[in-house]
């Protein structure tokens, strides 16, 4: 690590300790408020309003601690149960939901110990570098001014200018130690918060069940929408042409005896209709599972897709083996949708696709140099990608500030199905 890096990290940690001290003091107030809300529950039902309100504040404080811990490399999941449909913002159902959630009591158990630990570590994080700054600046200044207020150094009394100047290296040492240790001290605070604010095994299991329930519902909806699309395409396309083909052949049969020339024209028209119907059926099949994906795998299919895009698209991939067919299909269509959005909506001049395999995770990145400002809530494309990946426990993150660039990062759990020996990286 470069010198400027640890100094910058140390200064950030020292600055963050000021916020932690203030928040730790707030912990005591929140603890008292929560106890008052509980005690007031039997009194005129006042707690039916106070308990949800104070709990919301406590959870905001706990979430702030989780965000601070994440900045120091200690991610903490939110353990709270999903609010029941019948529970409003206040009232008995809301209180029941809050008070029967074990996470509520874990937050309450953390408030006071978290405040004590946060205050202690925060003050230590501040005190050591501040003592170093005092040694570097204040003591020599007092001696130089000749006030006679020489004070005492950390080890011996200061009576002379020469002895006062000894505080300079001592102060520099304490400042360096304080800045170097500050990030680790803040991490200790984060680790302590994780002891009580992290979800328990049962809470994780419940959250996982809820997540899978939503994922299953999204998958069922996506499958139903896909079936409706296939049915619509068949009805409006190939089916209509095949019906027309049957009628044309029937007319040709009636005319073949008395007007062979007209019958030949009808048969030629029928041949054209059959060719068009076959093309539409091929497109429909490609929309279900592209043949190139079955033949070449994800790497080859994405490169073939990039060649068909109106937007010049660079492809980089280190995927050297075949993946499970459902994973390959989900990854391919997610990339195709992201590229389609970039082509239609971004106003970009170039795009790129990067595919990287990291053990059992497949990471895909689609970016463009367009105008940015993409929003998953304003259309179905990005939301569809999220649903498609969610069926496989995958994730999608979007970075699209106004003015661009736009970067869509997608991850999927994956396992290899069979080895491949081809590896290439070209620009389409």
Shape category: elongated
The radius of gyration computed from the alpha-carbon positions, rounded to a whole number of angstroms, is 33 Å
How many structural domains? 3
Distance between the termini: 38 Å
Give a quick account of the main beta sheet: strands, pairing sense, barrel closure.
5 strands, mixed
- Poorly predicted spans: 146-159, 418-428
* Strand-pairing-aware structural class: alpha+beta
Contiguous helical run count: 11
Strand order of the largest sheet: 1-3-4-6-5
Based on DSSP secondary structure assignment, what is the total number of beta strands? Answer: 7
The residue fraction in helices comes out at 55-70%
- Average per-residue pLDDT, rounded, comes to 77
Helix/strand order: HHHHHHHHHEEHEEHEEE
Beta content: 5-15%
Catalytic activity: ATP + protein L-histidine = ADP + protein N-phospho-L-histidine
Domain Signal transduction histidine kinase subgroup 3 dimerisation and phosphoacceptor: 226-293
Domain Putative sensor: 19-197
Pfam family, one: HATPase_c
